[in-house]
Design goal:
Layout (H helix, E strand, L loop, with lengths): L4 H10 L2 E4 L11 E4 L3 E5 L17 E5 L6 E3 L4 E5 L3 E4 L3 E7 L1 H4 L3 E2 L6 E2 L4 E2 L2 E6 L5 E3 L4 E9 L33
Antiparallel strand pairs: 1-7, 2-14, 3-4, 3-6, 5-13, 6-12, 7-11, 8-10, 8-14, 9-12
Length: 186
């Protein structure tokens, strides 16, 4: 069941949902608006020609950091990893779902290709998998509204929250965009 605005506020007050920083004005009827941070990773195509999922991604991507007044420009058919500004977390009885904003979707911006899920027990600055599906470049600005986070209750509290021993949790508590750690699955 997706939480309504009143339940989101209730769970924030109870500490089951954390949003840092949090402003009440960002709460929507069934979600919370989330903003863009300044850190990005882009593929370094000058040094790489293929992605091997069995190998570490060191050197595959290069970091880019924008300033308050300098946009990140995402070109058509281009992919980049970004980051949300707010540290977001859920207890062992909730999950979070990162969703796009319709105003940006109408410009051709996809904010996550597959990984919009916040596991129970994790708290981090979620990574955005940004893709420009349009025909024109899109300027993205630091702290602009970029997505929305919806929350759902689990049927019962989970036994092993994200980060528990044996789960192979790769992105616990991230505060910068992280390249894929898929190679750790082999």
């Amino acid at each position: 069941m997706v939480l309504s605005d009143r339940d989101i506020i209730k769970e924030i007050k109870a500490g089951a949902i954390t949003l840092k920083p949090f402003k009440r004005e960002y709460v929507q009827p069934a979600s919370v608006d989330i903003h863009l941070d300044r850190h990005f990773l882009v593929y370094d195509t000058t040094k790489n020609f293929v992605i091997d999922t069995k190998k570490p991604t060191q050197g595959l991507m290069k970091p880019i950091e924008i300033t308050k007044n300098e946009p990140f420009i995402l070109h058509p058919q281009e992919f980049a990893l970004g980051l949300i500004y707010e540290e977001t977390g859920v207890s062992d009885r909730l999950v979070g779902r990162l969703e796009g904003k319709s105003s940006l979707g109408r410009l051709g911006l996809i904010i996550h290709t597959t990984a919009g899920y916040l596991d129970p027990g994790n708290s981090l600055k979620m990574t955005l998998e940004l893709y420009n599906a349009g025909k024109l470049p899109i300027k993205l600005y630091y702290k602009m509204p970029i997505a929305q986070m919806a929350f759902e209750y689990l049927s019962s509290p989970c036994e092993r929250p994200y980060g528990s021993k044996g789960l192979n949790s790769k992105y616990l508590g991230d505060t910068k965009p992280e390249a894929s750690k898929m190679h750790l699955n082999f």
